[in-house]
Structures are given as C-alpha cells and as structure tokens.
Design goal:
Layout lengths: L27 H14 L7 E7 L5 E7 L2 E2 L4 E6 L3 H8 L2 E8 L4 E11 L2 H10 L2 H9 L9 H14 L12 E15 L7 E8 L2 E6 L3
Antiparallel strand pairs: 1-2, 1-5, 3-4, 4-7, 5-6, 6-7, 7-8, 8-9
Helix pairs in contact: 4-5
Length: about 220
C-alpha cells in the first residue's frame, strides 16, 4: 500500500516576529500600511492578494482571491464586475470580510465592514490605467455566468478588440468598477511559537478605534 500524506502532521512553529500593544500603531489603517510595506520589501508572492468573503441573501457564504488596489482613509478598494456572483451578493448583503495572509512574514490581517461602490471617477481612473488587454477582458467576460466553452469567451474578446481597434481610449463598462470596504473591525495576527500567537484587534466605535488583545 502506498504511503499517504498525513496532513495533520504538517506544522510550522512560527517564531520570526512578535506583536505587542506597545509596538502597534494606534491607527489600524496605518498599521496595515506598515505591514503591507514590509510585505512589499520582503518581496512576498502577491503581497496585495486578499480573500474576499461575502454572504448572499440566504446566508450562504462564498470566498475568492482578489487584489487590493488602494488603501485610503475610507477603506480598502478593489475592482470587479458588478454583475458577478460577488457583485450580486454584496448588493444583497453589503457586509463583507477581507483576509490577507503573508506566510513569509508569518502574518495575517482580517478586516470586516460594510462595502460601498467606489465613486465613478475612481473607477474610471483605475480602468484607464489598466493594460488594453485587461480593459477588453472587462468587456468580453460576463463574469460568473455559465458559458458553453472557452471559444465563446475568446470570440467575445476578438469582437471587442475589433470594435475598439481604432480607439486610444476604451470606455469603462457600466457593469465594472470599484468597491470600498469601510472597516469596522481589523485584526492583526502574528505567528508565535507553540501556537501562542499574537492577536490584536481594533473595533470602530463611532469615529474612534478601540483595541484589545485576543487569545490565540
């Protein structure tokens, strides 16, 4: 009988860094920016990758990996098709969560809050910054809808490439744009030895942030 991998035996004893109340910023968005900068400097794989979790009207959750495109005082911005599954779910239930994981630094950040659409000019600006191929892709893909085969998608791409072949500026599709997750809760997790990890959470109360340490 072939040997099988026992995944329960896979473990890493985290020990690279620590997180304390004395060292963490009083502003969780500033702390997140600090950690993101360190992830960029460490050249981690896809440092802006984030799991977006949503819930539909029936209470069923779903999750997928996105890319963070902006961090501002308002919150965390990402872009997608408004008519995709996640778009419909955020329309039905505007509460969502983001999870960042940087294994090279043994760090995780969880963000929870309300999602709103980004202003049209923000979506327009970002859309125009994208490569032309990505702009065409936003037109060609009816995201999350069933298609008969790959050829159908590629034909849509060719059709839009032909349609916009002579245009230097491709308009943003009305069904595509940005969302901003306005955080109400942000938790910073730092791996520590023996699974006694550091967890410090921020929760918004009015216009202020309260903070506390959580048991791992």
């Amino acid at each position: 009988m072939a040997n099988t991998l026992n995944i329960a035996d896979i473990r890493i004893n985290y020990s690279k860094k620590e997180l304390s109340e004395a060292s963490i910023s009083k502003d969780p968005l500033e702390q997140f920016r600090l950690w993101l900068d360190e992830a960029l400097q460490a050249e981690v794989l896809e440092p802006t990758a984030v799991v977006l979790s949503t819930v539909d009207a029936a209470g069923k959750p779903s999750a997928r990996v996105m890319l963070l495109k902006e961090l501002s005082a308002q919150g965390f911005t990402f872009f997608t098709n408004y008519e995709s599954r996640k778009g419909h779910e955020m329309e039905q239930n505007p509460h969502a969560a983001l999870t960042f994981f940087w294994p090279e630094l043994e760090r995780q950040v969880r963000v929870e809050g309300r999602v709103v659409k980004a202003q049209a000019e923000v979506s327009d600006f970002y859309f125009q910054s994208r490569p032309k191929g990505s702009q065409i892709g936003a037109w060609a893909s009816q995201q999350s809808r069933r298609i008969s085969n790959r050829s159908e998608l590629e034909q849509n791409e060719r059709n839009y490439m032909h349609q916009y072949a002579e245009q230097n500026t491709i308009p943003r599709p009305a069904h595509w744009g940005g969302y901003v997750l306005e955080p109400a809760y942000i938790e910073f997790w730092q791996g520590r030895p023996n699974r006694l990890h550091d967890r410090i959470a921020f929760e918004r109360v009015g216009n202020e942030w309260t903070t506390c340490r959580l048991a791992p």
